[in-house]
Fold this sequence. Notes:
8 helices; alpha+beta; 4-stranded mixed β-sheet; 202 residues
Amino acid sequence: MAQPLAFYFDFISPYGYFASLAIDAMAARNGRTVDWRPMLLGVSVLKVMGLKPLLDTPLKGDYVRRDVLRQARRHGIRLGRDLNSPIGNPLPAARAFCWVKRHHPELQAAMAHALFHAIWAEGRELSTPQVLADIALPAGLAPQALAEAAAGDEAARLLRDAVADSIEVGIFGSPTIVIDGEPFWGFDRLADAEAWLRSGGW
Amino acid sequence: MAQPLAFYFDFISPYGYFASLAIDAMAARNGRTVDWRPMLLGVSVLKVMGLKPLLDTPLKGDYVRRDVLRQARRHGIRLGRDLNSPIGNPLPAARAFCWVKRHHPELQAAMAHALFHAIWAEGRELSTPQVLADIALPAGLAPQALAEAAAGDEAARLLRDAVADSIEVGIFGSPTIVIDGEPFWGFDRLADAEAWLRSGGW
């Protein structure tokens, strides 16, 4: 049985959001499943790489804001956030995701989509665990239990482990798709990644 | 008459090299010409953006080395450099290019290709003006005169002006293609840029 595609993402990443909308279909077209793996740009980019956040980088920040809007228009993706306002604390969403992936692994894709949608399509702030109870969650999850789990130690530990794994694998950007050990970084590399999937590499 | 495509590049950039091999044909397919515009990543990335050189950035450097080799294989591009060895001083090549563009504008594309080829396909070090006399130059250029011009004040001034222009326009990466004011950054955005060219934007 073919390995799942490892899809690394940060909920604060607009390009991660764009790729999240395409990855299930890409995997299905190629007889694969998706293993959704959260990472934190705040750790990889800021701490390990010693760089600044993308949108705060001179020149590049302006380009990225323009490009994100342009990509959303091109692909007909709903974008409900002002890209000039900060995105807030990424931890509650990422911790909630990790908890769901552990306890309801069959809901991992639905949970990732729910969180990306709330943040990027609806423009909601998910900066505290409690607000997670207010978003549209996948059927089978109890809102209040989820909010409590997101505030708990287990979710924090699961996310720490996921982030450590992402750094160990060498992941530094969102999205990154790893196909049988081969990494492809960036929403603009989805076609490359799919060509690799189809051909078995080159 | 349609505006030329503004093609911003740094000779030290492998992705700039890859794009340089495709840009003439892309422009011609769409009834455009190319205005070759050197920039310096050492100014935009290091000084203005406050970032590190790509290949020296933890995690990302390893990925980029792998990706450059992978892209070269995919597109059948000859790569004669060890990506682990430093690329040396980018100024002589960039200054020589600026001087040629000013005094022999009809040779700008041929000169850019000659320099990219020497550095990336042949793996030569162009770290001093004198070595420019030893590479395969476009017909019509006298090797020794070119080497002297590359060491002169005019070439240095032309490059300073070109770099200042690139920063003013907001260029931060190589390659960047600007189509009627719309910037596309990255070798992996050539298809995007061409779609924009064909459709007039979206």
